[in-house]
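By way of example, we now present a protein record of this kind:
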Amino acid sequence: MTDQADLSRLADIVVPPPVPWWPPAPGWWILLAALLAAILILLAAGSRHYRRNAYRREALAALDRLGTVSDAAGIAAVSAVLKRTALVAYPRRQVASLTGGEWLAFLERTSGRGDFAALGFAGALSGGPAGDGAALLAAARHWVRRHREEG
């Protein structure tokens, strides 16, 4: 009969080998693939957004090149930059024929703010006396950055 309290047959516990770090389990591969797909989608969306707004960057650069606006010629140059920008963002049939008050109303409607009318540029756009050129440039920059695209 063997003694149950006999410690001579005692053996260490056999520990399984540690789980290797490589190759990862299938779940990690799936997570990595999903992360890469999300990064690619974000990069594509960012690239598309950047290309789609190239006309805005060009219009802002053109406004910067104008410098200060102090006379009717400067105001006409700002209006020309805004018209070129609008022709890119809106259908030609909607924008091309606009002049004077209709052009000002279009700018007001699409800017979401009352910058142009509040500054009194209705007369200046049609050849009247020039208003505050810095305020006009600020309103034009805001319109270029924030105008609502339609159609």
About this structure: The first helix runs from residue 26 to 52. Residues 94 and 102 are 11 Å apart (CA to CA).
